[in-house]
Amino acid sequence: GGSDFVNGMVYPVGVSDVAYACTYYTTNLYTIDHASLAWTSLGSYGSGSMQELTVDLNTDIIYATSGSSLYSIDPAGPTATMIGSHGGGITLMIGCACDGNGDLWAFDIVNDAFYSVDKTTGAATMIGSLGWNANYAQSMFYDMATDQVILGGFNLNNFYTEIRAVDVTTGSSTILSSMYYVEVTGATLPVGGGST
């Protein structure tokens, strides 16, 4: 049990006033109005709970990880279509983000590792160790303004949430800010401009 929470959020390309969100305990896709914070359910996408949402700003395709597999999400249905397994025994890929080139990155909290993900097969290739003990709910997104993949991770060693800029060539990261005993479970920024 427990209270439900947003564990994936993404703005469609060119939109900054409404984001899509998924929650931990449901298979529903929601919109969240930026100004009013009003939620609207678009219905069930018909698959298991997703861990994270991201968008490829070059193709407008929304991707999600279930923890072990990659999906594409069509908000019009809404529907989730499985692309393929991450492979390699990965069971808890908890965050993913497409960068400005359309490359898909992700991290796993069982292996504490950073991966590149093939968007056509779902297969994940390990880039390197995170170098810290990631646990509980996490988040990851792309910051267009700085051209960086940003990770909101809960570090079990010190019980701090650490906002980190990730070096996608190694998987290591630099702490930008931190706060004690808080989880960042759904974080995103608009990509490709927007209306507000």
Description of the structure:
The protein is mainly beta. 0% of the residues lie in helices and 48% in strands. The chain is built from no helices and 16 strands. The protein has strands at residues 6-10, 18-23, 28-33, 39-44, 52-55, 62-65, 69-74, 79-85, 93-98, 104-108, 113-117, 124-129, 139-143, 148-155, 160-166, 173-180. The protein has a four-stranded antiparallel β-sheet, with no helix packed on it. A hairpin with a 6-residue loop joins strand 15 and strand 16. The termini are far apart. 41% of the residues are buried.
Helical percentage: under 10%
**Shape verdict:** globular
Biggest sheet strand order reads 1-2-3-4
Strand content: over 45%
List key phrases describing it.
globular; single chain; 196 residues; four-stranded antiparallel sheet; mainly beta
What is this structure, in a nutshell?
0% of the residues lie in helices and 48% in strands.
Task: Summarize the helices and strands and which ones pair or pack.
Elements (H helix, E strand, L loop, with lengths): L5 E5 L7 E6 L4 E6 L5 E6 L7 E4 L6 E4 L3 E6 L4 E7 L7 E6 L5 E5 L4 E5 L6 E6 L9 E5 L4 E8 L4 E7 L6 E8 L16
Antiparallel strand pairs: 1-2, 2-3, 3-4, 5-6, 6-7, 7-8, 9-10, 10-11, 11-12, 13-14, 14-15, 15-16
